[in-house]
Amino acid sequence: MVNRKVTVEAHVVIKEMIGLDRKNLRKFDESVRDVSDVVVVVKDRRFYLCKEILAVQSTYFRSILFGNNEEHPEIEFHDIDPEDFQAFLELLHGESSVDDSTVEGILHLAHVYNTPMCVRRCEEFLIEKSKFKLDKKLELSLRYKLENLKPTCISHVTSVADVREIVSAEIREMDLHTSQALLRKLLIICD
């Protein structure tokens, strides 16, 4: 301590970085302009896309692009993140873009744009590969109605501490059925 001030020096080892400088798996920029027939603008970032690919996977895009026979050379979205949209499009085009840093953004867009394939792939990732804690997985399963993930989460509850973790997360979407399943699981654990 010098002059009533403490100086602290810390040595940190970074074991893993998630979501920083994520490399795009597919380009949707000017380089594919010649093979696109619609442009989606997300917060000043332009995505050059094919209407048919969007429409086949998403009823939302089908209704916008083909619903009233109007031409839509450009569509603008202001309330979504361009990086989330990039990862969503990559998944929609067959890339493996789902990881712990992208899954929540992709799920949100898949839910908004009604793309069941993207929802299914995100759910499979959460069940098989995600490193998220149990409470986060359960929260996502409830928010996005992931009916295969929810029982998987409940089956992984093995201790009172697991139940405490879930309850302390104060999951707003917790429904009666899930609450009852957790209570039954707690009773089994305590027996």
From TrEMBL:
TM segments? none
Q: Which InterPro entries match?
A: BTB-MATH_domain_protein, BTB/POZ_dom, SKP1/BTB/POZ_sf
**Ranges where the BTB domain occurs:** 36-93
Q: Which Gene3D superfamilies match?
A: Potassium Channel Kv1.1, Chain A
Return any one Pfam family short name. BTB
Instruction: Please give the name of this protein.
Output: BTB domain-containing protein
